[in-house]
Structure formats: structure tokens, C-alpha cells
Design brief:
- The chain is an alpha+beta fold.
- The chain folds into 2 domains: 1-11 and 199-499, Roll (T-fold), CATH 3.10.520; 30-185, no CATH class.
- It has helices at 32-38, 54-64, 131-134, 159-185, 242-254, 257-260, 268-274, 284-299, 343-357, 449-463, 468-473; strands at residues 3-5, 44-51, 72-80, 83-94, 99-107, 112-120, 205-209, 212-216, 220-227, 230-237, 316-319, 328-331, 363-367, 371-375, 384-388, 403-407, 410-416, 438-444, 477-482, 485-488.
- It has a 10-stranded antiparallel beta sheet. It has a 5-stranded antiparallel beta sheet with strand order 2-3-4-5-6, covered by helices on one side.
- It is globular.
- Mean pLDDT is 79; it is low at 1-31 and 184-213.
Length: 499
């Protein structure tokens, strides 16, 4: 018996209030101070999930005049003294060569309050970050044209980026119109996901409160919450302590936000990157993930590199430390650390450790639909089944997945070039790998193998199939997909299910 847990292994579209972005998505989260500046009247900020069925997705596409097929979107609802003050979304759009990460802040009536460029990676067109360009969107509604060259001034040398931001803003306005305005009109502050299938024995209950999806059945309990700009789902056997254990797991992951978020101006990694030449005393979590990153860089022969530059680790200086932990750390000018390619796997490892320490023998952790770990079997029998979407067929999730994986006591990491293009950089060239479409890494559930498998899928995507043998030697099975089709390690088929 195989329990089907259908996952759309793609890049989650939007961000939330604070967090660490996915390695491929580079989803920046608007830091608290930025939202506080945009919404000075804010009294509270809540992370929420907007669930969109196929009909709603089609409406967004039509209204935005842009591709869109995301089943759920994370956003931040800002509350003021008199009610809802607005809604903030973070999105990535494709520029000429690189992704542009931007924030669109709306008023409660759906008009644009502000547009901020959180990360611009192109070599030209930095004027797009200037207030003079961004303020052109203020006050816009969905029915406004938002046309480059007409009501939106073009930037010479950055026409593609200008069009990308304009299209992105239209998409956010369409999401408000389709997904939020109806709830406000009907007086409903919730947006319910597709109803989960109840257990035939005891039935089930599910619902979404403030962006938290909860589902309990006779066999298991499941919780989904917006974390780090995507969705973290934890499912475990329904024990007396199960609910408390899941709550502890979510609290533990959220405690890492002030450490790893590159878009929180007060986070540990942001402070380190902003002060080259200064010594930094890392926290225990920062030191642990840095050590794992260093080990992964060695294992992958430099194809995973937390500095995202050739020989970048030579510009990270360590001073002393007990048990291999750096007592102090210093970066050279021009060097920055980025744990995007490993942080979610590290968080999954910590959740697994919490579940196991509580005696839970059956569970599944799915972080952002790209970092996954399974304990035991679902409901005590069979294996957990994971469906991996083919990036060459964006609409084929339900009928034509590229892979069906069946796992037990295993980890799965996926790095893919889905609709919004690749975000992984070849550390030896500084450019996206031209031929990589997908990298999938599967391995046994051992200590810190969630982090290791994340690093290996990132490295395999960056390098290509010549790294497959090294992944196998490291204890993983892997698949790489390029234009000519998939290439696998010998043992990968042991995890594959037939159609």
C-alpha cells in the first residue's frame, strides 16, 4: 500500500514577512522595518496563504495577462487600528539574465501603496531601484493600463526588466482582485484550501486560521504554515502528544529566521554580510550551518558554495573555536554568505530530530515542496509517494509527472528550472548553468542528510551529470534532467514507482 502525497515540486511564487529564501527561488522576505516604514499605522502583521484552484488561477492569468499556475501564494496582511491596512507580496520576475526580487505593497482597497526592489542582479539598469521609477506604480489599480512606454517610463538598457516589474505588479493586483477582494466583500477573513480527504474510519477536520492549515484524521495529524516565503507542512502519526510536538517543530524552525534571513536587516547573516572586515561571533545555529556548508563544499568539489563565487570560501576567515566551531568569523570585502541552498534542508533535519525524540515513528516533512523527509511508513504500511513535476511541461502535474518516488526513512531534495527560470549559479562561471532543468537527490534519513541532500541537489544542478558519480559515492542516489532527457545513478530506480 502506498500513501500518495502529491507534491508540485516547483518554486513557490511569493514571500512573507521574514525568512530564508529557497536556493532556487531566492525569495526575499520584506524585513519588518521595511513594512513598518510602508505601513506606519500597522498594529500587527500576519502571514497568510491564498489558496487558488484551477479556475482562480485561470482568472489571475486573464486579468494579469501573464502566465500563472500557482496553487497557493503566501502574503502578509497588515492590520491597523481601524482594520486591515493592506497586503504585502514578494515575487521574483525574470529580467534579461537574472531574477529580480520585488515587494508590492497594496492598500486595503487594492491600490498600490509602494513597490520596492529587494534584489536586482543584472549588470545594467539599476535605475529600476530608484524611487523615481518605483513611484510610478503608486495608486495603480488592476484596471489601469500599466504599460511600459505609456504610463510607465521605460529605462534605457533595461526594457526587459522594466516590463518584468510592470507585469509582476499587474499579477499582484490580479491576485488581490481574484483571491482577496472576494473575501473582503463577503466578510470572510479566511481562504480555505481544497478540502483534505477525511479518514473513512473517524472522519477528519480541516481549516485555515490566519494562514495555518490544520487537518486531523484517525491516522495522522497535519499542519501547514507559511514559513520563510513558502509553506512548511508537517504530518505525523496521531498520538497523544502529536499536536504539541508539531507546534514545537514549527517554533523551532521559526527561531532560525533571525539567524539565516538575508532580507531581515537585523538577522545574523545580514549583519555579517554588511560588515566586511569585522570579526563576528556566530551563534550556535549559524556555526552549525556554516560547518555543514563547508563540508558540503568539500564533498561536492566546490559545486556547492555558500559564497556563490569561485574560491569564495578563501575569503572567509575563521579564528579559533572549540570542537571545530569558529569562535569568530570575518569576510573580505566583496564576499557574502548565502545559505539558501542548504537552510531548508537543515530545518527539515531539525524537525525530524524533534519528531523522533518524541517517539513518532511515522511522519512526513515537506518544506517548500523541495526539501522533504519521511519517517517510517504512512499509517504504518507502504511508502510515502512523491510526484515530481516535469519542468518541460509546466501544466502536467496531475496527469504527467516526470517522476513518482516512493520513500521510507529517506530524504528528497529537488532543484528545478520551472516557469521563472533557474536561480542556481555555477560558482565557477558566475552564471546560471545553461543545460540544467532539474536535479533530484534521494538518500537515507541520517543525521543532517536533509541539509546534505539540499546541497547536493544544488551542486548537481550547477554542475550537471558529471557530478552524479560523486553523489553516489557520497551515499545518495540522484537524477539530472537536461535537454536530452534524464540521467540517473544506478540505484535511483529503487525509489521510482511506475506510472
Amino acid at each position: 500500500m502506498i500513501a500518495r502525497f502529491e507534491l508540485v515540486l516547483c518554486l513557490c511564487l511569493m514571500g512573507t514577512i521574514a525568512g530564508v529564501s529557497h536556493p532556487e527561488a531566492s525569495q526575499a522576505q520584506p524585513p519588518g522595518p521595511l513594512l513598518a516604514r510602508i505601513y506606519p499605522e500597522a498594529s500587527a502583521m500576519r502571514e497568510k496563504i491564498l489558496w487558488l484552484d484551477e479556475g482562480a488561477q485561470a482568472q489571475v492569468r486573464a486579468k494579469a495577462r501573464a502566465p500563472f499556475d500557482e496553487p497557493h501564494v503566501s502574503y502578509t496582511e497588515i492590520a491597523g487600528a481601524g482594520g486591515v491596512a493592506g497586503y504585502a507580496f514578494v515575487d521574483d520576475v525574470k529580467g534579461l539574465h537574472e531574477m529580480i526580487t520585488y515587494l508590492a505593497a497594496l492598500n486595503s482597497d487594492g491600490t498600490v501603496r509602494a513597490v520596492e526592489i529587494l534584489a536586482y542582479r543584472e549588470a545594467y539598469g539599476f535605475e529600476i531601484k530608484h524611487e523615481r521609477f518605483r513611484r510610478q506604480f503608486v495608486g495603480k489599480r488592476l484596471e489601469d493600463p500599466i504599460r511600459v512606454g505609456a504610463d510607465i517610463r521605460n529605462i534605457a538598457g533595461a526594457t526587459i526588466s522594466t516590463n518584468a516589474i510592470s507585469t509582476g505588479v499587474r499579477k499582484i493586483l490580479a491576485l488581490y482582485e481574484v483571491g482577496i477582494k472576494g473575501m473582503v466583500t463577503q466578510g470572510d477573513n479566511r481562504n480555505l484550501p481544497p478540502s483534505p480527504r477525511p479518514s473513512p474510519a473517524r472522519g477528519g477536520r480541516g481549516g485555515l486560521q490566519d494562514g495555518y492549515l490544520e487537518h486531523d484524521s484517525g491516522a495522522s495529524i497535519r499542519r501547514s504554515r507559511p514559513v520563510w516565503g513558502t509553506t512548511l507542512t508537517v504530518e505525523a502519526a496521531d498520538t497523544d502528544r502529536g499536536r504539541d510536538v508539531l507546534e514545537a517543530a514549527f517554533r523551532d524552525v521559526e527561531s532560525l529566521t533571525p539567524v539565516f534571513s538575508r532580507y531581515d536587516t537585523a538577522s545574523e547573516i545580514t549583519r555579517l554580510n554588511a560588515r566586511p572586515g569585522e570579526w563576528h561571533d556566530p551563534s550556535v545555529d549559524f556555526a552549525a550551518l556554516f560547518d555543514l556548508s563547508m563540508s558540503a563544499a568539500r564533498e561536492t568539489k566546490g559545486w556547492f558554495d555558500p559564497t556563490k563565487r569561485r574560491e569564495g570560501l578563501s575569503h572567509v576567515h575563521l579564528d579559533g573555536g572549540a570542537s571545530g566551531r569558529p569562535a569568530r568569523m570575518r569576510l573580505d570585502t566583496g564576499t557574502a554568505l548565502d545559505f539558501d541552498g542548504i537552510a531548508k534542508g537543515y530545518a527539515v533535519d531539525r524537525v525530524i530530530r524533534i519528531l523522533r525524540s518524541a517517539g513518532i515513528s511515522s511522519g512526513l516533512v515537506n518544506f517548500g515542496e523541495s526539501s522533504i523527509a519521511a519517517i517510517g511508513s504512512p499509517a504504518g504500511a507502504g511508502r510515502w509517494q512523491i510526484s515530481v513535476r516535469d519542468p518541460r511541461r509546466p501544466k502536467s502535474v496531475a496527469t504527467q509527472p516526470l517522476l513518482r518516488l516512493a520513500i521510507r526513512d529517506a530524504v528528497v531534495s529537488v532543484s528545478g528550472a520551472y516557469e521563472r527560470g533557474p536561480h542556481i549559479i555555477d560558482p565557477f562561471t558566475g552564471k546560471p548553468p545553461p543545460d540544467s532543468l532539474l536535479a533530484v537527490v534521494v538518500g537515507p534519513l541520517a543525521a543532517w542528510d536533509g541539509a546534505r541532500s539540499d546541497a547536493w541537489s544544488t551542486a548537481l544542478f550547477a554542475c550537471g551529470p558529471k557530478l552524479l558519480a560523486d553523489a553516489g559515492a557520497a551515499g545518495f542516489e540522484a537524477l539530472w534532467l537536461g535537454p536530452a532527457g534524464p540521467v540517473r545513478t544506478k540505484g535511483f530506480s529503487a525509489y521510482e514507482e511506475g506510472p
